[in-house]
Amino acid sequence: MSTAPDLDEPIHLVPYDPVWAVRGRALVERLTAGLGEQGPYVEVGHIGSTSVPGLDAKPVLDVQIGCAAGDVDAVVGYVRGLGFEHLGEAGVPGREYLRRRSERPANVHVVVLRGQLWTDNLLLRDYLRAHPEAAARYARAKRDAARATGRLLAYSDHKAATVAELMAAARAFGG
User: Fold this and answer.
1) Measured between alpha carbons, how far is 29 from 51 in angstroms, rounded to an integer?
2) What is the DSSP letter of 14?
3) Which is it for strands 85-86 and 96-100: parallel, antiparallel or unpaired?
4) Lower CB count within 10 Å: N or C terminus of the chain?
5) Element (H or E) spanning 13, and its range?
6) Burial class (CB in 10 A: 0-12, 13-18, 19+), 47
7) Which residues contact 39 (CB under 8 A, 6 or more apart)?
């Protein structure tokens, strides 16, 4: 398993690319089909900035897999078998984080289905999709953070206050 410094990779943002939606669906379908063959009941969804049309993003897909707590290890094992590197919780309790850095980079977040992380990721995605002004605000915060830092951990810290405010608005909207 990797350590925190391994997480702190260089980052850059690019304008939204419609191919992300196509690749996101393809990855979701691949994971859903493969995990269905393995036995655990899962739901898989495209999340993060690449799932929000028009939003600047790091050109890395984010997908979450929701499963029963007792199936997390099996799901992680399956995803590792697809060539993803497992980095444990990576600073987010209750999430197992895997990444692939190839010609089609992706992150997979394994969480408890319908748990807080599962719900929050979907709420924020759906809120940003439904509220272009909020997505534009988030894009500004992301660009500022990327310019100021250039590395993942500092970038995440730099935009954390904006994410927290948007998450609160998403919960009020979705709840």
Assistant:
1) 15
2) B
3) antiparallel
4) C
5) none
6) buried
7) 74
